[in-house]
Design a protein that fits this description.
98 residues, mainly alpha, three-stranded antiparallel beta sheet, Multidrug-efflux Transporter Regulator, Chain: A, Domain 2
Length: 98
C-alpha cells in the first residue's frame, strides 16, 4: 500500500466531511436508542425533569446505577394514551335576524 499526498485544502474538506458524518451517526444512534435518560425524555416530550420524575411510575422506568431509564416505546405509549383529538363538524348556520 502506498502513501498518497493531498493538499491542505482537500485534507480540511475531508476532515469536515468526516466530522459531519460522525455527528449524523451519533444523532441517529442516540435517537433510536431503546432506553432514554430523563433528559432525553424531557427533550422528546417537552416536559420538565420535575414532571418526568413525578410521573415516572405512570410512564414506566428502571433505575440503573442510580440513573432513571425509560423505554422509548413506553414513553410513546404514554403520550399516545393521553392524546385526545376533537373533531369539529361543520354545520350549516343560519343567521338570525333581530
Amino acid at each position: 500500500m502506498g502513501v498518497v499526498v493531498i493538499d491542505q485544502t482537500d485534507f480540511d474538506f475531508l476532515r469536515s466531511q468526516l466530522a459531519t458524518l460522525t455527528s449524523a451517526v451519533e444523532f441517529l444512534t442516540s435517537h433510536n436508542a431503546p432506553y432514554l435518560s430523563s433528559k432525553q425524555v424531557s427533550e422528546m416530550t417537552g416536559f420538565k425533569n420535575d414532571w418526568i420524575h413525578t410521573h415516572k411510575h405512570e410512564i414506566g422506568h428502571s433505575l440503573v446505577d442510580g440513573q432513571l431509564r425509560f423505554k422509548r416505546k413506553d414513553v410513546l405509549e404514554y403520550m399516545d394514551a393521553n392524546y385526545t383529538k376533537m373533531t369539529i363538524k361543520k354545520t350549516s348556520l343560519t343567521r338570525l335576524r333581530p
